[in-house]
Amino acid sequence: MAPDTNSIAGYTIFREGDYGSAEAAAVIPRDIPHPLDQLSIVEIHAAAKLIREMAAPKTPKFNCITLREPPKLQYAAYRQGRGSRPDRRAFAIIIMQDDSGQVAEVIVNLTQGKIEEWKLVKDVMPTLTLEDLDLMERISRKDPRVIEACRGLGITDMSKVFIDGWAIGVDERWGLERRLQQGLAYYRNHELDNQYAHPLDFTVVADTEREEVLSVDIRYVNGERTAIPLAEHHYLPHFIMSFQVNGNELSWAGYKMHIGFNYREGIVLSDVRMHDPYEGRHRPLFNRISVAEMVVPYGCPEVSHHKKHAFDLGEYGSGYMTNSLKLGCDCKGAIHYMDAVLCTGKGDPAVIKNAICIHEEDNGLLYKHTDCRDGTGVSARDRKLIISQIITAANYEYGFYHTFTLDGTYKLEVKLTGMLNTYCMHPSEQASVNPYGTIVAPTIIAQNHQHLFSLRIDPEVDGRNNTVVQNDAVESVEALGSAENPYGNGFYCQKTPLRTALEGATVYRHETGRTWDIINPSRLNPICKKPVGYKIVNNSCPSLLAKTNSVVWKRAAFARKSLWVLPYRDYELYPAGDYVCQSTGEDNHPHNPTIQDWANRNENIENTDIVCYIQFGLTHFPRTEDFPIMPVEPRNPALWVPPSSLCVDDKSRNAFPQTCCSSGELKDNPKL
Amino acid sequence: MAPDTNSIAGYTIFREGDYGSAEAAAVIPRDIPHPLDQLSIVEIHAAAKLIREMAAPKTPKFNCITLREPPKLQYAAYRQGRGSRPDRRAFAIIIMQDDSGQVAEVIVNLTQGKIEEWKLVKDVMPTLTLEDLDLMERISRKDPRVIEACRGLGITDMSKVFIDGWAIGVDERWGLERRLQQGLAYYRNHELDNQYAHPLDFTVVADTEREEVLSVDIRYVNGERTAIPLAEHHYLPHFIMSFQVNGNELSWAGYKMHIGFNYREGIVLSDVRMHDPYEGRHRPLFNRISVAEMVVPYGCPEVSHHKKHAFDLGEYGSGYMTNSLKLGCDCKGAIHYMDAVLCTGKGDPAVIKNAICIHEEDNGLLYKHTDCRDGTGVSARDRKLIISQIITAANYEYGFYHTFTLDGTYKLEVKLTGMLNTYCMHPSEQASVNPYGTIVAPTIIAQNHQHLFSLRIDPEVDGRNNTVVQNDAVESVEALGSAENPYGNGFYCQKTPLRTALEGATVYRHETGRTWDIINPSRLNPICKKPVGYKIVNNSCPSLLAKTNSVVWKRAAFARKSLWVLPYRDYELYPAGDYVCQSTGEDNHPHNPTIQDWANRNENIENTDIVCYIQFGLTHFPRTEDFPIMPVEPRNPALWVPPSSLCVDDKSRNAFPQTCCSSGELKDNPKL
User: Fold this and answer.
1) How far apart are CA A253 and CA A408, in angstroms?
2) Which of residues 211-240 of A touch B (CB under 8 A)?
């Protein structure tokens, strides 16, 4: 007998005794099972048979039959060779198919072939299985109240109505008297249509056990029904892959940008833009991106160590310290390298071969959806383009990976590796009582330190004049039980535009999951009626732990805030000053202003040409395992996601052709 | 003339006019440069020549010669075809090689071959170049005070002394009168030795311009010097790669674990352990890992939507909803699949083919270090092992990726994709004033919602009895200017053991970069004298935004905290209760306790068998671009890093042979 492959999408079902087929042979284990192996198909049959015999003449519905794992200590004893092999046991939850609807938990000892426990459970509702959920659509389509609710929207062909079964949470009308589920209703005009483009204005409540519709809850607005949204929005993939380099200009998957390099910032990305196939033009995203500064304050207060707070970019230069990269070691795959051109003290040019690595990688799933009815679906792989350099700053190595993905995200990832800065201990010094470092080897201490980076972004989101809006996720101000928030579940995104440079100097807030949108207030998305924008996501931004007014606090003004937003000025680039070596960081230095001075001008930053400095990094309490060489510590400082709409009209929602491909047309009302 | 390749490690230097060589030809661009291209070697020569002529008879030292980018509006006009091509300009910082040590900024117009600006800059210190840093070791080795300082430690061969040049921050002894750097001192006995294993107890201060040692600052402890740490700690790579599967037991790169699967949690990892080659045994890490629950509360307070807060695991089962995976779509590379065995309501077994995907991937750099003296270095690539499943929960897809890397990290990544839950709008409803959702297409709204997951970890760090210690990065309590913290830079890690289950119910704190260590208090690391442990890093844990006492707040007790730590009990698994469907979540339910009930017992969790529930997820304010299909939103909830020492003795620091490979022996004092 062939296995039944049709009744649950994605499942291959085996009837009892059906072990002769190739399909069964492939899934029956030949060895003695490991105590933690899932139940085999033979074991499930055996457990179900014993339970059915015990339940007779009643019929049980199996909510689950799963491995009953051995108790921890029993298994541990077996694993350590101190105890015998635990018996194989199955755990089942069953629902009686009679008026009682009793739920029971059953433990079956499979090794001994007997039921060990049969416990009735009251006032609970087991998991909804796919079989349970499957009934919702089936019974709804036949139900007169559902048919009537559809007719009210002009739908007469019930085969085009799709009902997603959902757990219901709590519904006071029935409480636990019935085993309930709710059905969310959609319309789908033809096989390739997308039901989520056509939600309907009613929900269905059903009894899962009696397979009975209990209620059809229609929402009336001013006494009226809500028409079906009829435009089609499909999700078929099409891709553009691989990159082209023309001089130092790069094209990849609809992106274009220029790759520059200098002694101080290393890689500079300019003119970052994306192609909009519907408008037939490149829409600007960023005017310029660079890592503009960093500081590494050490936390040991003993004198001489307080001077260790390297500003690796301002004091040495990220370009100067760049490594020449090697295929297979630093980079893998099909690489395009660019050289760096610097100069010596004599004024001679000096070239670092292969200073910049450009390559493309698979990035896992881009999107996926499976229709749980028939198991059909769509999925596409993501690709990422990575532009990277690695620098050596004495003992430390930093890898900077500027990354773009097909969904329009720009992300900078910094990888920290190399060697810890170490110091020696006098025999009188007790490792275990020194809180300022970790003993990594006998008589060697590695001190606490932070790595704080500043990413400079000069945005140009669909034009030069942008505004930064601060987003905080907050619960509704309306009280639980009020008419506006009867069940207390309301929450929304509180949006606060940053208006002046001092308002623009702001910190991350975990409690509200704070993010920031760089918006273009003069370009509205016609769908959601909100300005186009680009989101800053950055929750890897530790506070500067040195005291206010300490040497490093003064010198590293930039590290006092997670974000600074300033009006753009030509050549205002380096937040710790143009000259960082030996600078004191005092305010109002006549030749060497810092970001604090720029912010103190407190100029307008709303709907104008702005620049953002985004701080990120980590606090490193060294581990003994970080010596003698540190494994890479990745930090994803600023994740940029094209947010509440980088697009200017319905068609250009597809500015990222990889993300979605809609017909782009509002269809006339199709035949219902 | 061949280019000079020797004077700066990693640089190939070109003398003026030296354009005939193959090396030069390879780096001279043939086309007209893009306005943002870095300067070519020809342009650098031209700029340096003009500056030298202007400075004569004085000699300038070039701190940098770099592209002077065109002013933004000028470049924008050119880019848009509204203006002429900007002139090519160089920007240089020079230091005069005379007693004045004057610093000047020079702008050279390369298109017109003339100097446009020459500005003296006072009270600043330019970047330290590699050439500047290079002198520190050279002059220190010859300096009588340094030689004397070394002799005091028994060192007579100065070629074995290595001095890393560092920026000095601020040194009040000289302020800005001198261009300073500090040298950090190390000893290296032979070419393959690691200097950071032998730090010395003095630092050197030097004048960069006059190439003169100004001070050798020796630290005396009780009037004594500190001996050189002499043990060798190398960092040569050796790898173990690829995985073996025996039944459902997996071995990979020193890891071993069992892979189970059930209808509710999907993938279950048990007996996760790592091989310690020095102790010749597998050291336990985790007894059991699973994703035990999740909830998706929607934030629209209108009635009927308040019932949308699916507990996809407890209400449907992660195993039941699992997709059958396809090579090339869901997974790439050499895959080992495992099937899932479930059951139908009739009690028949049902198999999902290829439910679990196991594969190995390159993971970028594992570690790297380059010696800045000669450009030699070491680097190794990381690998990761990924055990994954993808589930479909009606409209949403979730990918669960359990990931292990060579440095001992376990990380769970969840990828969210699929379709938004949508609802229809009545014409009277204004999209732009509804804060509870986003219009994704005409008359279609997608509501705000959260995805909150609970990762259940049953740890077994080097044994069954573990304790969780809370880590907060805090500044020193000693005041700035006090003897204990004169420069205010002191900071450390405040460690608070969680002692009872109610203390163990705790939240993430951004201000202190809070993490948690799972330690084994009875196994001390003999190097750092602290207990072995494993760190929990989780800053992706949004607060539950529903009101206190609301329906979902009651039902999803687990989502009220970032971390719960509880004593282990057999079969206490599901934090929202064993039966989640229609549960109210009230405390003290007789048959269906939740994690809040377990915590309310307030039992001891110190140095006992414990279980951790780690909550993570995201708050989703839908974007228009999320329709009609959402690009993947990755969430790295819990990053586990083996922290202040998962090891029990000096040798077993190498429990992760991929991370480091020390000789493991304390050497006798080598010849000095």
Assistant:
1) 10
2) 217, 219, 221-222, 224, 226-229, 231, 233-235
Global pTM reads 0.84
pLDDT score of A232: 75
pLDDT score for A378: 78
What residues in A contact B297, CB-CB < 8 Å?
Answer: 489
B147: DSSP letter: H
The single-letter code of the amino acid at B389 is Q
Confidence category of residue A590, pLDDT binned at 50, 70, 90: confident
Has residue B184 got a pLDDT over 80? yes
Q: Count how many residues are written for chain A.
A: 672
Task: State pLDDT tens for residues B536-562.
Answer: 999 889 999 999 999 999 999 999 999
- Maximum Cα interatomic distance, chain A, rounded to a whole number of Å: 98
The pLDDT of residue A648 is above 70: no
Q: How far apart are CA B658 and CA B237, in angstroms?
A: 7
DSSP codes of every residue in A376-388: -EEEEEEEEEEEE
Size of chain B in residues: 672
Q: pLDDT tens across B411-434, in order?
A: 999 999 888 888 888 888 876 568
Tell me how far apart the terminal alpha carbons of chain A are, to the nearest angstrom: 42
For residue B268, CA distances in Å to A297, A381, B455 come to 42, 26, 11
A470, β-bridge pairs: A496, A516
- Residue B572, helix vs strand vs coil: coil
* pLDDT of B645 strictly over 60: no
Alpha helices for A404-444 (secondary structure H): none
More confident residue, B17 or A584: A584
Average predicted confidence (pLDDT) for chain A: 86
Q: Are strands A114-121 and A630-641 parallel, antiparallel or unpaired?
A: unpaired
Can you tell me which residue has the tokens 């507990």? Answer: B311
Q: Quote the CA–CA distance of B398 and A365 in Å, as a whole number.
A: 11
| ipTM of the prediction | 0.83
Closest CA to B369 of B235, B240, B239, B183: B235
Q: Measured between CA atoms, how close is A339 to chain B, in angstroms?
A: 8
Report the amino acid identity of residue B429.
Answer: E
For chain A, which domains are there? 31-121 (3.10.450.40), 130-218 (3.10.450.40), 243-298+309-420+448-466+496-655 (2.70.98.20)
Per-residue pLDDT tens for A511-520?
999 999 999 9
Q: How far apart are CA B528 and CA A463, in angstroms?
A: 55
Query: Which residue, among A307, A339, A373, A512, would best test binding to B if mutated, counting the most B CBs under 10 Å from its CB?
Result: A307
The tokens describing B89, both together, are 């300009």
Backbone phi and psi for residue B164, each to the nearest 5 degrees, phi listed first: -85, 120
Structure tokens at A38: 């899932």
Query: Could you say which of B44, B217, B625 has the minimum Cβ distance to residue A659?
Result: B625
For A267, the 3-state DSSP assignment is strand
